[in-house]
Amino acid sequence: MGLLDRLDNPYDVGDNIFLGTVEDVLNWGRSKSDWYMTFGLACCAIEFMAVNAAHFDFMRFGCIPRPSPRQTDFIIISGTVTLKMAERIKRLYEQMAEPKYVISMGSCSNSGGPYWENGYHVLKGVDRIIPVDVYIPGCPPRPEAFMDGMVQLQSKINHQAIFRKRKEMRPEDIAAIDQRQIELKKLRAEYEAYRIEHLDLTGVDNVAK
What we know:
The chain is an alpha/beta fold. Helices cover about 45% and strands about 10% of the residues. A five-stranded parallel beta sheet has the order 2-1-3-4-5. The chain is globular and about 50 Å long.
């Protein structure tokens, strides 16, 4: 009966018993240690500075800023997304490794903000080019609102399917991933052929010589 009682509260470690799955442990670790990249575009990016300051201390969530999209778990889009910047955001998102997440911070990033009707140069929501996991409303949102959004993202990561993910995906999504892997292998082969043909062992371009 003692073991059955633990099933109702598996996180009670009073008797050093912890019940769960490997997926639960992995999700717990991923949700408590997220590396992020900021893409600040306007006044919301200034407000995000307050989130990182000592009073709110965003790093206590286990979030560490990284300079490269290849090292990040999620990206924060804060501010007015113009059509010229939309292409850059999409490229950065594609460079992130799976699983990856997006936080849209502020009205401009969510839906175009005050420019939604007459701003011909403004994208009417970053979710038109990349999928968004958490929307944080406000113009700009308060740091407390952003912290609540981070809690929502951690909750989503904590309940995400890892090993069952491919089984739950649509066939067209699986086909797109497989095609992407084929393209990456082709690009690597082309680069290797170029490196062998044009570069010497020191990495100096022989064509330039």
